[in-house]
Amino acid sequence: MHYMMRSSRSENIVEQTFVIEKGDDLVMVGKKLAKEDFITSKWFFYYYAWKEKLRGRIFAGEYQIDPNSSIADIAFKITEGELKVKHEESIKITFPEGWTIEKMSKRLEKNNLPAEEFKKLAKNPSEEILAEFTFIPEEKSLEGFLFPDTYIFTVDATAEEIIVKMLSNFDKKVPSDMRDDLAAEEKSLYEILIFASIVEGEVPTDADRGIVAGIFKNRLDIDMALQSDATIDYIKGEAEIKHTLADLEIDSLYNTYKYPGLPPGPINNPSLASFKAAISPEETDYMYFLNNAETGETVFSKTFDEHISNKAKNGL
């Protein structure tokens, strides 16, 4: 069965009040949203919450939910993703780990900052930006280099100022000595970023990232296709619980089911934890893994038969 996030909107035609009680966790919130017809299925919410790493970020309280709100709209509201600081001339914005340029631009738009200019410049950086940040390969977008973090921008910030602040943060959080070590080991910073973005897109917890990085390394070592669902999500521009056979045949160099090796560029802007996992993958005998969106657990397998059995056990 093929699930799509956009099909999960409710049929409400008027604004409704939704209450999250103190102590409600993700599972409870998903059940309540579905029961009260804010969403069509709790499973869509669980999957989105897992992909966006919402565990522990939901605040109790009353929320006014607009009619026909998507899961992304509801999640943004109940996690208070958009916060203004007290200083009237500044805006505080959080870009979560694993977000793409597209998602970042939408958050900027909600805060009345230059979203379209940001998106254009991020996808085609100027000569001035490339000259200042020499670790960015020429003729590449800034996907992967826009470090996920909480930033404070002035209300009249330009797209270039926003991007320079984010790239400066990357330069600080991924220091030059770390990049020098990669060069000494004849590892490409850009390839590590690509690898890290796939790890980021596949698992939400630091504990699992090293193992998953190890699984992908095991596949690369034997010229096996990475078969990353996160790369299919990137191609389609939306997260889905399952992909169709047609999805897996999409003719794109980012399709890691169809083309072996790494895709041509990062698929998101990964966390430092995923970056470190990509540098030093954990050595295991695992070759497969799956994610239980409801529990947040990552289940690992050594053989394909074991993997198929685990999928059945986890309702996949």
Short description:
The chain is mostly helical and 316 residues long.
Notes on the protein architecture:
The chain has about 325 residues and is mainly α. The protein folds into three domains: about 5-80, Endolytic murein transglycosylase (Dna Ligase, domain 1, 2-Layer Sandwich); about 85-175, Dna Ligase, domain 1, CATH 3.30.1490; about 180-285, no CATH class. Helix content is about 40%, strand content about 10%. The chain has helices at about 25-35, 40-50, 70-80, 100-110, 115-125, 125-130, 160-175, 175-185, 190-200, 205-220, 230-235, 270-280, 305-315; strands at about 15-20, 60-65, 80-85, 90-95, 150-155, 290, 300. The strands form three sheets. A three-stranded antiparallel sheet has the order 3-4-5. Strands 1-2 form a two-stranded antiparallel sheet. Residues about 1-5 and about 80-90 have low confidence and may be disordered.
From the spread of the alpha carbons, the general shape counts as: globular
What percent of the residues sit in helical stretches (DSSP H or I)? 40-55%
Q: What's the story with the biggest beta sheet?
A: 3 strands, antiparallel
Residues in β-strands, percent: 5-15%
SSE layout:
Elements (H helix, E strand, L loop, with lengths): L15 E5 L5 H10 L6 H10 L9 E5 L5 H8 L3 E2 L6 E5 L6 H10 L4 H9 L3 H6 L17 E5 L4 H15 L2 H9 L4 H14 L3 H16 L7 H8 L35 H8 L8 E4 L6 E4 L2 H10 L3
Antiparallel strand pairs: 1-2, 3-4, 4-5, 6-7
Helix pairs in contact: 1-2, 4-5, 5-7, 9-10, 9-12, 10-12
